[in-house]
Amino acid sequence: MPTSFKQPIKSNWFILNPKLTTFIFLLTLIGIISLIAQQRYQIIKENRERDLNEVLENAKERLDQLLKNSQNIAITVALTLDQSGKPRNFEKVAAEIMKANPSLQGVQLVPNGIIKYMYPLKGNEAAIGLDLFKLSVFNAIEARKAIRLRKMYFQGPVVLVQGGKGVIGRLPLFVDNKFWGFSAVVIKLDQLFRIAGIENKKSSHYRFQFAKINPLTNQEEFFIPGQDNYLKNTYQTKIVEEGDWKIYLADTRAVYADYQLGSLILFGLLVTMLSSYLLWTLLHKQAQLFTVVHKQTDMLLVAGNKYKTIFDNAAIGIGRINSITGEFLEANAFLCKLLGYTEQELTNKKIKSLIHTDDLALDAHNFKRLRSNEIRQFSSVRRYINKDQQVIWANAIVSPLWEYGEKPSQHIVIIEDITTQIAYEEQLIEAKKYAEELINSIEGIVWEASVKENFANVFVSRKVYDILGYTQDEWSSEVGFFLDKLHHEDKERVITYLDNELFLRKHHEYEYRMIAKDGSIVWIRDSLTVEPSLESPEKLRGIMMDITQVKKAEETLHKSYELVNEQNKRLLNFSYIVSHNLRSHASNIDGISSLISNAETEDERSEMIKLLRKVVTSLNDTLYNLNNIVNIQSSMDLIKEPLNLSEYVNNALQIQETQILSKKAQLIINVPNDIFVYFNKAYLESVLLNLISNALRYSHALRKPVIEITGESIGGGSILRIKDNGVGIDLSKNKDKLFGLNQTFHGNSDARGFGLFITKNQIEAMGDRIDVESKVGEGSTFTIVFS
After folding, report:
1. In sequence order, what DSSP letters do the residues of 612-670 get, joined into one string?
2. Where would I find the PAS domain in this sequence (predicted)?
3. CA Rg, the chain, in Å?
4. Is 316 within 8 Å of 415 (Cβ atoms)?
5. Domain locations along the chain
6. Distance, CA of 355 to CA of 349 (rounded, Å)
7. 470-502: per-residue pLDDT in tens?
8. Which CATH superfamily is domain 317-424 in?
9. How confident is the model at residue 658 (pLDDT cuts 50, 70, 90)?
10. pLDDT in tens, 430-441
């Protein structure tokens, strides 16, 4: 070995101390591997946290949308209250809401904290009459919190008294600034989770948890069984203030990161040990020092460059392709894993065999331009088919390895897996579509206007066409379109209100009329909010409800009130007329009194006194019945409440038990226990007694009485039929007189002609009706239709 080569070796401290040099080299490589492992760990952790946050944010947005929709529903139900705090058209409005929102268990109106109005009633009977402030301490705390916040607050998840689990959103209502009660919605818990996307079955490594702090124990309670253990892994949380809920989302892949890092560390340690051993060996081979050093340096440089390239592009698939045959010449580990082939299997395949058939034409066109040197690179989003025949979406970049002007030889394909991104974009599209459908399903026009753009309409739901006849494009076509369509009598009032009151309060509600596209007039109740705050207003958001029918109902009610006043006058006039007709009784009494005074014998006088008593008794019965009739027709404040029809039928039959036994009547009763009618208690007892007693009284002399009583629910009401096999009524002669005053049809000595008249008046006073079918000698059927 020449002296010039030996001198540097002898004078080099590192070469003269091979063990220490190797040890320092080993520590350096271990430090590098540790740094790389730490960075890799951090990348994996950040990627998982970002994925968790995106999924959790999507679930929270869907849950927030559901809660906002529930608030709009509660507001809609609250709008059924009139100025005195009494609901109008509650069942009709609630039925429409339930039809449009199948996820709901029901809607409620809860005056003074007591559940009095519930739709649907069927299946929710157990909730009627519950006092939220007395039911339990927990319920009282949750209810008072909604009052204190003066906004929609959701209690639960709780076990519902009517069965199942759910959450209850309560909107506190105030009439004349005094607490009236709640407008509430009940949402099934499984529906809440489904709509929000809080479902663990859809993912193999994501797990949701739903929790809330119990105000009594101050302990956090979890509502998805068996999932709290996952919180030991990486997780993210979101708070839902409307119900004080916390949503957890955990990543269960604890072993995945360890496996990746373990492989990397093991590989690094192996490289480190091998490199250290080689270095130590090289340092001991001083005779071949420069030859070995140069050779090993070149080998390490190539290996280092390859290692660095593979590492830097670990999340990207790279393949080297023969540009003439299209066969793989080389593929990195990521690409092999992505496509599901080993490197040896992949080098036996042509790249076009892996591209989806629908994308081949475009790929061939671009590659033809690349080979003809029209372009030096191209990229495209295409689909690949892996070994398991699964579709992989990828962003592919193709670059040539030949110089410009040379013949095509080889090219590089860089493939980035964007399958998750495509799926996420599709989810976003579906979520946006769902949000639009949800908004458009609301029975009102949801709108948004920009304050900074001179109140230009930036959004309006499709309901604007259903309610006013304008398209969404027409509504947003020009600034001031809304003001142009206001009714001329309301325009100045609305403009003055907006100029003077808009930015004094965050929430507003007012009514006005608009001119629809067909020229009709539509009454609108507009509820709007200034967003995000009064200090920095940017947008106005609101919902316009069509209250035309409500206004018409108010007008109808006013007319009905006038009609009732007129009826009262007629009733009083009727009473005067009937009283005038009582003069015949007075004349009889006067005549009998004269006969008594002129009677010649005591027997004759006694006979006249008996006759006088009969006349007086008849007069008393007439006055009593007439008084009852006048009371029925003039009553305006009768109390109607839900009554169990089967219970009242049974009570009436018990009262008539003596006559039933004496007549040996056969009873066929088919009235379901779950039928409730809104009626006055006293009137319902009177109606049932009159009809059942008539069925017994007018039974046929030649056969045993058979009385059949059936009830059924129809639509939003019920029907009760009382059928007998008695003597019947000739309707061809007496139909118009059947429910008249003082009308009898069978000559019974105890008949007075008041019973059916009073029954019909009582039923019609409740807003219902009675019909009759009858044949002489066969029997009669009386049908009561309860609305």
Report:
1. HHHHHHHHHHHHHHHHHHHHHHH------EEEEHHHHHHHHHHHTHHHHHHHT-EEEEE
2. 326-374, 431-502
3. 44
4. yes
5. 3-42+255-312, 79-193, 202-252, 317-424, 444-521+531-540, 553-634, 641-786
6. 12
7. 988 888 878 888 888 888 888 888 888 888 888
8. PAS domain (3.30.450.20)
9. confident
10. 777 776 777 777
